[in-house]
Amino acid sequence: MSRRRIGRGWHALGIQLMKRGRHEEAVAAFRRATEIAPGKPNHWNNLAAAYQSLGRVDLALAALDSNLKLTAPNGTWIDWHNLWTAYRNLGGNVYLGRDRRDTNARAAAALRRSVELNPKNGEGWNSLGAVYQTIGNASAALRSYRKAESFGNRYARKNHDDLLAALAAQAAAMRAAASSAPD
């Protein structure tokens, strides 16, 4: 049996163990899969998910960093999109020892690479807009939402318009505060 098939077997075992809530055993299976087939992005992403299930966000981030370093440079647009998903899902906004902006920047980088490899992916462009909005880059968010809409993403127009409305409300509030400030 080939190493690749053995790696897939360990990965499949890890998935089944995760489904049964046996997270420590799943970590062991996914670690074995990454040792046998280190070039498979889904092995690293699922290892990160298993670590996250154990509350080990630090190890989950390390697994994603390994994915980014070892597999992502040669990955497909789907691999990059899945890497973004893993960063997005990581830790429920718990970033243990890392600045949240750093994690969001890594998520944005993964999505940028995904849409570079598949520029007609409306979902990817829309998601990239949301990440840009989260990190406070409204102009990049608006551009991404427009791109997403051009490729038929059904949520992009609303996201674009909602962001414009929020920016207008923020500007109005700032003008009102400035005009009511004592001389």
Please provide a written account of the structure.
The chain has 183 residues and is mostly helical. It is 77% helix and 0% strand. The protein has nine helices and no strands. Helix 1 (3-19) packs parallel to helix 3, helix 2 packs antiparallel against helix 3 and helix 5 packs antiparallel against helix 6 (100-117). The protein starts with a helix and ends with a helix.
Shape: elongated
Radius of gyration: 20 Å
Distance between the termini: 81 Å
Count of alpha/pi helices: 9
List the helices and strands and how they pair.
Elements: H1 3-19, H2 23-36, H3 41-53, H4 57-70, H5 77-89, H6 100-117, H7 122-134, H8 138-150, H9 156-180
Keywords:
183 residues; 9 helices
Summarize the model shown.
The protein is mostly helical.
